[in-house]
Every structure is written in structure tokens, then in C-alpha cells.
Amino acid sequence: MRGLNKQIYSQLRQSRSYAIVLFLIVLLTSLMFFFVQFSIDKNEVKLKGYNLAQKQEQFRFQLSDTPEAELKLEELKQQFVIEERRIKKVTEQGRNLFLMQTPQELNLPYLVEGQLPQRTGEIAVLPQFLELNHKRVGDKLYIGREGYTITGSMYLPDVQAFVPWGEMQQEYASATFVLMQPEDYQAVTAYKRNYYSARAKSGVEAAVSLQKLKDDPEFINFEQSEDTAANSELRHSLESNTSLALSFLVVLSMVTWFIFHMFYKRFLLLHQQEIGVYKALGYTRRQISSVMLRFAVILSAAGALGGLLAGFLASNVLMNMLRSSYSFPYYERGVSAASLALGLLLPVAGTILITLATIVPFMKREPASLLNPVQSNRDNRGVLAALNKLVSLLPEKLRLPFRVVLRRWNALLLSAAAVLLMTTLFIMSYALYQSSNTLIDSQTAGVNYSYDISYSSLQPDALEASAAGRMYYLRQPVELFTESSSTSKPLQMLGLDTDGDLFILLDDKKHPIELENMEGVVVPQAMHVLYGIDAGDQLQFKVSDSTFTASVEAISENGEPDTVYTARPRLVEWLNLPANVHSGLWSKLNTADVQAQVVTSADRQAALQSSAVSNRSSAVMNQVIGLVIGCLLIYLVILLNFQDSLRDMQVLKLLGYRPKEIGRFLLDVYKPLFVVFYLLSLLPAIYITKQILRLISLQTGDYIPFSTSPWMLVLPLVVILLEYTVVVISFQRRVRKASDQESLNVI
Fold first, then answer.
1. Which of 156, 174, 189 is the last residue of a domain?
2. Is residue 646 included in any domain, yes or no?
């Protein structure tokens, strides 16, 4: 048995280059899974514990201005812990300061350094604000003319993503929450926003009560924690990364298994006579198979463990991205036992199964059949003859390359997989990289105002608003019901003045969409892509406990992705509101009073730009993966062709051909085929990319539009051919060496 082991291992080591590629593919598979997963598992557990310990709210809401609302609030306190949150926004020297009193019952601050304010004149701020502004605990921060001592830094569990309620996303360098004493808070005059935070008391079935609250018109702007960006973006990011890690693992594992299948199928065909001899000498199928199976286990296990270690080291990149994006104190790298088992066992177990599936049927053949391999070649003569007739129709220059490659179906399938995978990853990387620019363009097109001024309650219109350089709007949170889904989707509905020009909706030809005589609604391109909504569809909307139906009259190329647009008079009619009321206005001048919230177009642009970082990082990641996988697979294709052509190379050498000519005849034959495969894979790659982006958008709630460009449709082919050329050049020395090994046995 020891002699058998030594002999088969010696034959396996002859395919050293192939084995190295197998090891690297398994390592890459495990690496990409653990690279992402190390930043997820422990953080998901710690995030749940953090939210529970700091008593993160389960939902928030505002009250309507009716006596009944106050009575219902008191009733609600029997089931829920409720705390009013008051926030004032002060803009000082380009900084947005969100002032609030220290929470006592819900959303308890997590102290990072120092202490929370104990006396008047003391404040606590976010730690990122301190770091990025080169301040320390003990320094002064001026709000108006008053200087306040920073006594500590803290995180807020309901502001894990810096998106204050009703505000654009903020930058930590230019904005912070400020905790202060009630006396200091009352002394500051600024725009104020009030709402209530709530969490179910122990033993209360929250789900039933929450549905009743959503339908109650006395509780307005109702929002559950999972729908609030500030509360849920970190959790959604971790969930999205989990799907990404699993996708990497499954796709790359399938590629790995296919390559192992090719390796052993080729090995068995090359050494079937030797295997026939082993069986004739009395070795059993199990003994022979176990040697090859152990080799596969060792190779795949070593690659998986190497990927585990490399993934742990590389995961620090994702951890730093999370730290820079979200306020959370307990970041820690680590994987759960389930993830560890999945990341290690799936590649290894799959390799074992695919190896057995390849070896076992082969080992059932009789020794005489293995010692006489001629019959298997005869079986393929009909197929080869048909292919030769097909190839004869091609131009003469392409006949030889296609005759060579069509003899090797495994290499052919591997080439197609390599091209499709690389093309998809490159197109996806471009779409991810450009998605932020596309969103910025769509949300700034048609915008001609400088200030977006909104109010917490409805305001009566002033006369001749358009003549004063203003344009009114009415914003209303709604729930959308579609025929394709049984669940509702929270959206915003925006009623626009029909005679204003400070914001104009545009169609796909960049022509203005007229709202004046419109009876229905306009939906943005995002809803058309994600939910399949088309012009002419009937949509059902729900506001509190009332519903109304509207037809889709147009699809707009600009606007916010989660907002439905209509004429303001139409929305007033649907909501049964008094005529001539608005919730905000657009203006070229800042005409707001202290009770209004103001968002400048520059603030909006900055918020959109700040959300671009993660998509661009994902784009770079996809490009790197595409390059590495493409290079490995192309190398493997050329290696297969090289090893299968060794005998032909020696024959051509004896016939007087030079190594360069031999390489051109037998090795450099895949270039035309790669071009054909690329042209065939382009449309499937675009379709796959669109579907992946759509699924990610639906899962995360952040719309990622698809976009491409003519040069991007050419770039993947250029990269593929460049990698192919580099690999072919690297094999030229091997061709020279192989063709020099002349022997009378080759004739």
C-alpha cells in the first residue's frame, strides 16, 4: 500500500502547476467569505446587546394637535415606556449642532470618555467630532456667544448612522449631537423638532399594538426602528454583508468544484493505463481512490485554512470602513461557530463529493478497459467530425485555433466561465462606482432652488408665492400597496405647485412633466426598476386609516427614489386638507424663521456624496476579485492546453518548427474564442448585474441604479486579452523546454 501511495502521489505532483491553482482557488473562496464574515458575526451579537442595554427605542412618532391625542398618549404609557425627545438645530460657522437634553429612560447615551453634563455650562459631544476637529475633553465649544465645557464624549443608540430625524445625512467633521442641561437647552433659541420615543414594557406584545398605532390618525409620522435610517443602517449593512459573503462562498465554491472535477477527470484519463496496472496487480478500487481523495482533502483543507487566516487579516479593511461610517462602541472581529463551519466545510466537503463523483464511476471499469484506451477515442469520432465540418466554414486563419480548442470541452467550459465571471464583475464594479454619481445627477436635475425650508406643522400659503421667488410643496408619509407584493412600502408623497419652476420633474427625454392637469401621480425611475411600476398602473396608498387609489401617469428620470409626486391641489384633495396649505417651500433666498428647518442645496450635495464611499469601495473590491479570478482561470486554461499538447509540441519540433511557431499553433489559440465568448456573455452579464443590484437595493432599501458606458463595454475584453497575453508569454519558456525534450517515443 505504501508503494501505491508513493506512485500515485508522484503522478499527482507532476501536475504541480495545476495543484497550485487548485490551492489558490480554494484559498480565494475561503478568503472572500471570511474577509466579509469576520466583520459581521460578533458585531451582530454585540449590536443586539448594545441596543438592549441602552434601551434603544422600538418606534417614534409625533402627536396631532387634538385633545384626543393627549388622552391616547396617556393610555399608551400603560403599555410602553415613552420619552419625549426635543432637538434644536444650531448652525455655527458651517457646523450643524443638534442640541438635546440627556435622555433618562430611552436611547441612553453610551459614555466613551469623561462624564455626561452634570451642571450648567457642560456638554457632551460625539467622539468623532472631537477627533476630526482636534478637540479634547475639557476644551470649550461656543454656541452663539456662550462657551460650553466639553466634559465627555458619547454615542447615542438611536443615531448609529448620523441621520438626524428629518435631516440629511451629516458629516462627523462638521456636525454633532450635543447633550446639555435643561437650563442651557432652554436658553438657546433655534429651530426645534419634537417627537416621542417608545419601547414596549416587559410582557407587552408590541407587534399588535404597533399596527394599531400606525393606523391611528392621532399618531403622525409614525416610524418603527427598523425603518429609521439612524437606527437601522448599521444592522442593514451587516445583513447585506452577510448576503455578500454567502454569495462569494457559493459562487467561488462552484468554480472550485468544477476545477477539481476537471483536474481528476484529466488525471484519470492521462493515467488510466497505470491505474489499470494497479487494479491488475490486485489493488482495490477503494485503495486507489483513497490516495487521490486524501490529496484532494489535503489541498482543499490547506487552502480553506489559509483563506481563514488571510480573511482574518484582510477583514480589518471592512472594520475600518464600519468604524468610519457608524457610531457603535463594540466593534470586534470574529466569526460564529456556524460561519466557521460553513466557510471551512463547504469548500472541503464539496471538493470531497465532487472528487468521489469523478473517481468512483471511473474506478468501476475493468482493468482490460483501462489498459486499452482506444475505444474512448472512437466514441468521440462522430462529434469531432461534426465539429470539423463546422470549423471548416470559418475563415482559414481561425480554423486551426478552433480545431485545437474544440477538442477540449473542459477547457472550453472553463474559458466561458472565466469570461462570464470577469465580465459580470467588471460591469458590476462600474455600476457600483457610478451609482452614486447617477443618484446625485437624478436628485439634482431639475433643482433650481438654494434652500429647502420645511415646517413641523402645516402652514397657510402667502399670496403670490411664485412671484416672490418661492415654490410651495406638501409632503405626506404614505404606505404603498402594489399587486406584486402583499406588504406595504413606506414612501413619501410630495404635492408640488403647478406654476413653480424651482423644481421640475423630467421624463426620459429630459422634457418637463406637466402637473397642472394631472389626475394621478408621477413615480421615479427607482420604483419603476425595483417594483415594476409602469405608466398606467393603479396604485393604492394608505395614510393613517384611510386609503386612496391613483394612476401612474409618468415615470420621472429625476427626483428622490422613495418619493411619489403629484400636483399639490390633488394631494390636498386626497388628504381632505384645507386648500392653500403647505408643509415646506423651496426658495433662492433663506427666508425661514426660527421655527423652520433649512437644508441648503450644498448640504444635500454633501450628504449624497458621503453615501458614495461604500459603493465605490465595493466597486474596487469587485475589480480586484475579477482580476484575480480571471487570471487564475485563464492560467488554468492555458495550462490544460499546454499539458495536453506536450506530445504534439515534440512532434512539431522534430518536423522542424521553431518554439515560437509551435506556441502560436498549439498554445496561443484561445484569443479568437475569448472574443467570441465575450460577445456572447455581454448581454447575460448585464442582465445578471441588473438583477444583483435590484436584489441588493430591495434588501438594503438603498436604490443602486444600473449604468454603463461604451468604453466600459470594451474594457473587460481588453483586460481579458491582456491577462491572456501575459499568461501566454509566461508559457513560452515552457514551450521551448518541452519541445527540446525530443524522443523517439513520440513518433
1. 189
2. yes
Classified as helix, coil or strand, 669 is: coil
> Same domain for 636 and 737?
yes
Measured at the CA of 561, the angle between CA 468 and CA 85, to 5 degrees, comes to: 75
In terms of average pLDDT, the best of 16-30, 340-354, 477-491 is: 340-354
121 and 161 both lie in a single domain: yes
Average the pLDDT over 228-244 and give the result. Answer: 84
CA distances from 724 to 262, 410, 645, 666 (A): 20, 18, 18, 14
CA distance 47 to 234: 9
Same structural domain, 169 and 269: no
Q: State the pLDDT confidence band at 384, using cuts at 50, 70 and 90.
A: low
Range of the domain at 505: 451-589
CB distance 42 to 332 below 8 Å: yes
Adjacent-strand bridge partners of 460: 581
The answer to whether residues 32 and 108 belong to one domain is no
Q: Within this chain, do residues 352 and 480 fall inside the same structural domain, yes or no?
A: no
Q: Which long-range contacts (CB under 8 A, 24 or more apart) does 537-542 make?
A: 539/480, 539/481, 539/482, 539/564, 540/480, 540/481, 540/482, 541/478, 541/479, 541/480, 541/481, 541/493, 541/574, 542/478, 542/479, 542/481, 542/488
| Residue 563 forms part of a structural domain | yes
Domain stops at, among 589, 613, 643: 589
Whether the per-residue pLDDT at 261 is higher than 50: the answer is: yes
Q: Is 559 left (phi over 0), alpha (psi -120 to 50) or beta?
A: left
Q: Of 250, 616, 670, 617, which is closest to residue 419 (Cα–Cα)?
A: 670
Q: Which three cell numbers stand for residue 103?
A: 435622555
Q: Is the pLDDT of residue 341 over 90?
A: yes
CB 533 within 8 A of CB 539: yes
Q: 3-state class of 701 per DSSP?
A: coil
521-524 and 546-556 beta bridge pairing: parallel
CB 16 within 8 A of CB 298: no
Query: Contact 221/195 with Cβ under 8 angstroms?
Result: yes
Query: Taking a C-beta distance cutoff of 8 angstroms, is the pair 417, 258 a contact?
Result: yes
What is the C-alpha to C-alpha distance for residues 366 and 279, in angstroms, rounded to an integer? 8
The verdict on residue 230 lying in a domain is no
Q: Give yes or no for residue 238 having a pLDDT over 50.
A: yes
Higher-confidence residue: 709 or 555? 555
Q: Are residues 277 and 345 in the same domain?
A: yes
626, 707: one domain = yes
Give the 3-state secondary structure of residue 501.
coil
416 and 495 part of one domain: no
Please state, in angstroms and rounded to a whole number, the distance separating the CA atoms of residues 295 and 290.
9
Q: Helix or strand or coil: residue 619?
A: helix
Collapsing DSSP to helix, strand or coil, 337 comes out as helix
The pTM assigned to this predicted structure is 0.78
d(CA 180, CA 148): 9
Residue 477 in contact with residue 195, Cβ under 8 Å? no
CB 548 within 8 A of CB 574: yes
Return the closest-CA partner of residue 127 out of 144, 145, 143, 109: 109
From 677, 715, 24, select the one nearest 306 (Cα to Cα): 24
Does a structural domain hold residue 596? no
Total domains, the chain = 4
For residue 621, give the nearest of 317, 222, 392 by alpha carbon.
317
Among the listed residues 499, 447, 262, 272, the one whose alpha carbon sits nearest the alpha carbon of residue 358 = 262
CA 208 to chain centre: 33
